Amino acid sequence: MKKRVYTLLVEHFKNWGITHVFGIPGKSISPLMLELESYGIEYVLGRHEAGSGFEASGYALAKKTMGIAIGTSGPGGTNLITAAGQAKEFQLPVLFITGQPSMQETGRALSQDSSQFGADLVKMFEPVTLFSARIERGDLLYLYLKHALEKACTGEKGPVHLCIPFDVLMEEVEPFYLPLPDHISPVVSRDIDKAVKLLNEAKKPVLFLGKGAVMSDAYPQLRTIAEHWGIPVMTTPGGKGAFPTNHPLYLGGYGLGGSKHATAYMKSGIDLMIVVGSKLCDMSLSGFTADMEPEKVLQFEYDLKFAGKTIQAPTQIILGDIHSNLTQLIVQSGAAARETEMLAGRAEAAAAASAMESMESASASALSAGTAFRSLRAALPKDAVLFGDAGSHSFHAVQNFEIIEPGTFYFDEVFIAMGAAIGYAIGAKIAMQDRPVVCVTGDGCIMMHGTEISTAVNHGIPVIFFVLNNGRLDMVEKGMSYNTGRSVGAVYERPLDVSLFAQSMGASAYRCETGSEIENAVQFALRSSTTTVIEVMVDPQEIPPILTRLLSLD
């Protein structure tokens, strides 16, 4: 018996184990909305399509499955594009479905036309997805969906987009079922022996971890490699969650939010830089100078596009699935975890941090971001998962928040969509209900997508929003001032009262001005079953750790 296209789609969602779908309804996609309810899949009504796309992405990340975001035709679809771009940077399999008024009437004047005669959503989604297509007949659903799933879920994963006109959704077609593709073996490099040789010969190596190291979920492998060869470890901002920061071999972060000890080590004469999952973008290598260039680079990466392009030293690229390649490296070399002595730089960093904390407590008239994040760490269990938003607040977290358990900190320093972490945290909390989920954000990001707090409240999602408020777009304001001597358009004349804003949407809210108030608020939030917003009033004059990123007007 034939089934309607919208029924087949929802049946697939159900069979894939999808429990929640995210979006904002509209006429062209209304059959999907109604069918989701019939199949017991919760439809999470967002406040903005971009927020819904971020939520679907957070769900995909935490549940390790496909995320589904649905937007109507025209602006409903264009609003999803930013979320698709962010999902692509995180390598997340998210299916973005958008509508179109009618396939049969395409070419006539149509309201919210998304075809090639209007705002062509297929073309708009192409740069920010791995696959973007319009299904113009119901009998094409099987092949187009198959292409989309294979692109989304294999190799370097990522978002895909299908535009489905209303009349195509209503068509009846022969039923079929496509499972999520897990039968395709990951690509393992033939050059693992070359990597082993480089590691064995290295005299002063460094393990340089990027966001790809986090997304590859290869934490035990990274630790084994570091310990077996005794390699000091540093992380980019996006790689912060890849390695425990209290490990004896951890030197700190590099790039924005990095540590002086990591910088000093980079200047000490590196002969081999082992790069895992980093594009080595300007944010990751901020402050990199000629005297830091290593003799050789060993780079583990999914994609060849940026590999070997930034640092000019001879580079051995190990291309393919990072998790599988690191595992094979350990097998071929016989590497094993072992106890290691604490690096001198690590001990000095710990002593310096302790001294700095004492100085801040004794002399500061306003709360520093460093104290705020140390207080947050003190109150959270080690398995709490944090999502860092775009701004100074996250670089303060990169510098000051200790990672006890790898895989508990997610941040992107490449695409960096403001407000994305708000949605990511909501979607992730749905998928990991037994763990605390914290969104680290700022007042600027809250004014971008803070209304998604209402989404969390209405769906009973107890995310903790940790909001640093200093009345400005801090990263822009401080960076502009430092580089040009003045800033324009980055300070709010009337700052947002985050607590009142949160309360207006039904969230529990706390306003904190001291470290002890933060710890108390976090403890209340952990015991609560409701969405909680913790507004942290930080020093507006504090200099964030982002000033190595230079701006030139020459």
Automatic annotation (TrEMBL):
Q: Which residues form the Thiamine pyrophosphate enzyme N-terminal TPP-binding domain?
A: 5-113
Q: Which family does it belong to?
A: Belongs to the TPP enzyme family.
- Write the record's keywords in alphabetical order, separated by commas: Thiamine pyrophosphate
InterPro entries, per this entry?
Answer: DHS-like_NAD/FAD-binding_dom (IPR029035), THDP-binding (IPR029061), Thiamin_PyroP_enz_cen_dom (IPR012000), Thiamin_PyroP_enz_TPP-bd_dom (IPR012001), TPP_enz (IPR045229), TPP_enzyme_TPP-bd (IPR011766)
Q: Where is the Thiamine pyrophosphate enzyme TPP-binding domain?
A: 389-536
**Domain Thiamine pyrophosphate enzyme central stretches:** 192-329
Q: Name one Pfam family in it.
A: TPP_enzyme_C
Entry protein name: Thiamine pyrophosphate-binding protein
Classification via PANTHER family: ACETOLACTATE SYNTHASE CATALYTIC SUBUNIT, MITOCHONDRIAL (PTHR18968:SF13), THIAMINE PYROPHOSPHATE ENZYMES (PTHR18968)
